[in-house]
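Example pasted here:
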Amino acid sequence: MSKVLIRASRTYAVQIEDRLPGDAGERVRAAVPGAARAAILADDTVWALYGPELEDRMTAAGLTVFHHVFPHGEASKNASTYIEILEWLSRCRIDRQDVLIALGGGVTGDLGGFAAATYLRGIAYIQIPTTLLAMVDSSVGGKTAIDLPAGKNLAGAFWQPSLVLCCCSALDTLPRETLADGCAEVVKYGVLCDGELFRHLEERGLDFRRAYVVERCVRDKQDFVSRDEFDRGARKLLNLGHTLGHALEQKSDFALSHGRGVSIGMAVVTRAAANRGWCPAELPERLEGLLKQLQLPVRSPWPVKELEEYLLADKKWSGDRVEVIVPEDLGRCGIRPMDRQELIRFMEEGCR
């Protein structure tokens, strides 16, 4: 096992294991000492793979266990599912001493975290991520949210988990395209701050060293979260590729996955930055080469004019300006404030 401590308003461990440990229930009890009940949240796909085993581990540790299963996919990350979860927690008589366990990918983690942040004004929760994207990014740092019809992640809260337990063997059950999807967030850390990680992916492609990559990304994210837990400064850099990426997801009615949207977003802003002389001219080619090697897209299926309404609904707008994350070199990015007209021009340059 390797362990990374996340230092935020609540300090907690991210434990990286090969598979679900036999003492998982004891670890949950150690992280939430007063818990008598554990409420496990999972989507239908993940529950079938891992739910009964996790339930057995919790029961063996003396916890009374309940579970709630919802349909998989981004379409479930909405207000209706969120209310269903709150009502389920209430029926199970979960109290402030108990714990919610989010078992699954980013959708489950976001839903479970937001429910935990708001049920009884806040209960403990634990993340057990089962996708690469969730392990390296969304399970760490306390961002929780649901989507609204007007945009992605528009209702949410900062609420840190009490423990994150990453079991790398879960990655072996992922379809290759889902594994590739998570690689977009790994590439993001490489471009942002970690040239060695970027080079590891260039050398190994989708056959990267699982535990090494997960631990390295978590350590990179810990650095951002410890400096800026509430996303007011340095942590904004983690939005590299996300402004356009979220717009593409919404335009596709979420048929385009998050990782693929971020992949296109990173490629677009890097091409535009190189066009303006803000980063080395060779960086877009190198980035696109890696993304293609990982079976990720680099071109938008739609012109920017068809994405404008979604770009302008991004939650990062403040007044008439939005901060766009722009690569300056491999391992270094900067923040560029732009108004509406400048943002559209910039994205159009990157889409040529």
In short: The mean pLDDT is 97.
